[in-house]
Amino acid sequence: NAGVTQTPKFRVLKTGQSMTLLCAQDMNHEYMYWYRQDPGMGLRLIHYSVGEGTTAKGEVPDGYNVSRLKKQNFLLGLESAAPSQTSVYFCASSRSAGTSGITDTQYFGPGTRLTVL
Amino acid sequence: GQNIDQPTEMTATEGAIVQINCTYQTSGFNGLFWYQQHAGEAPTFLSYNVLDGLEEKGRFSSFLSRSKGYSYLLLKELQMKDSASYLCAVRGRSGGYNKLIFGAGTRLAVHP
User: Fold this and answer.
1) CA–CA separation, B87 vs A35, rounded Å?
2) Interface test with chain A among B9, B35, B100, by most A beta carbons within 10 Å
3) Per-residue pLDDT tens for B36-95?
4) A104 CB-side CA count, 13 A
């Protein structure tokens, strides 16, 4: 049981290049999330998905696109990378979004360190 | 709006007790989480509170007061391996779904 995995672990891009980050989970979770983490700031939600075939915008969606074609996978795309997108990207999943009294913890992948030059 | 405040850094001595505070403002409060994050690693779940009071789990305890918008994480018998960032996260309702809002984290350094 690998939990949440992310590929790649590190990547360096030039401004204007594109790339896709892959997240996979083997816990049969319905909900998946993409966050970015920058120094001095909390984890910020980029996009999320409440089930296969659905996606929604989070707090900082501009410059990113996502797809959830299969329940276990959640892809994050950067169409034209910018230096402001230099960050550590974390994927997470949870059984659901949680209702009152239910934990429904989010489980995080190991992260992808992206540098845009 | 939604806002979470926690101290940026704290230091403590091995074997001691440390309390990390978190204050929050959110709409549709539906639980508060504490995560531990070692440098260069993923956040890992520590504790969850949805009702007022203290939840104890081994050396770690977490307290919640919903009326005050306040929580703390208490770490006892500190060990060197407890040096990490501790993230306070509040689950609130926005856009029809529950979402987690994270604080910036408190970096704890444990010294011998």
Assistant:
1) 14
2) B100
3) 999 999 999 999 999 999 999 999 999 999 999 999 999 999 999 999 999 999 988 766
4) 22
The answer to whether the Cβ–Cβ distance between A100 and B50 falls below 8 Å is yes
Contacts 24+ apart (CB under 8 A), B105-108: B105/A42, B105/B6, B105/B37, B106/B6, B106/B7, B106/B8, B106/B9, B106/B10, B106/B20, B107/B8, B107/B9, B107/B10, B108/B9, B108/B10, B108/B11, B108/B12, B108/B18, B108/B20, B108/B75, B108/B82, B108/B83, B108/B84
Beta carbons of A90 and B48 less than 8 Å apart: no
- Mind listing the pLDDT tens digit for each residue in A32-65? 999 999 988 889 999 999 899 999 999 899 999 9
Percent of chain B that is helix, strand, coil (3-state, to 5): 5, 60, 35
Cβ contacts of A98 on chain B, cutoff 8 Å: 30-31, 91, 98
Peptide bond into A8 cis (omega under 30): yes
Task: Identify all chain B residues contacting A45, using CB atoms and an 8 Å cutoff.
Answer: 99-100
